[in-house]
Write a structure and sequence with these properties.
CATH class of the largest domain: Mainly Beta
Oligomer: single chain
Distance between the termini: 109 Å
Strand content: 35-45%
Structural class: mainly beta
CATH topology of the largest domain: Jelly Rolls
Number of domains: 2
Number of strands: 13
Amino acid sequence: MASEPVAEPVAAPVEPPVARAGGPERRLGRWAAGLSLSPIVLWFGVATLAAPEPAWHAEYRDARTPDAAPSVVFERELQRYWDRSYSRTPGGIEAKHVDGRWQACLALDAPGEFPVLLVADGVASLSIDGTERWRAEGSKERVTRGELLQLAAGRHLLEVQLRARRWPSIALLASFDGAAPKAIGSGELAPGVRSYRPEVGGDGRVSCPER
């Protein structure tokens, strides 16, 4: 008599492990996400370290209290626009009553002739090395005053002043490389042209040290 076939044992299905909150799988996911973002964090850190220091020494003063100490900040470029939604300057001064002054050093390796534009809504002036070059006065609308400025090689102190009217605006634009004029910023502006922050002495005098 033939023996009956013996059934092979069937292995019970194994359920995959359930990842617990805070377990290795979740931590691994967080680490992977962190590593995927690390190039962005690294780039941001390098960009911050490589950025030049702000070149503009800015002073904001409330015209209604001229004897009060100004609010002093350092800015990377001279380009400010105020309106009802952006109505206060650094230091909390109402823009409609602000007197502003901005100073920066400009260093040239060689003499040159450069287009420079002063854009203002208010009463503004541009001085170079203590001598006023020209004024721009926008009593009802923004105006632009521009010229070709001849500058000698060496260091020059730029100074812009603004007396507000209505919602003021101020910008100093220039081209040092033949491209369209843009706001004078900080650091290297073109080969042989750079800007940096001036030094203010204890007597209040501003100078451009060699750098």
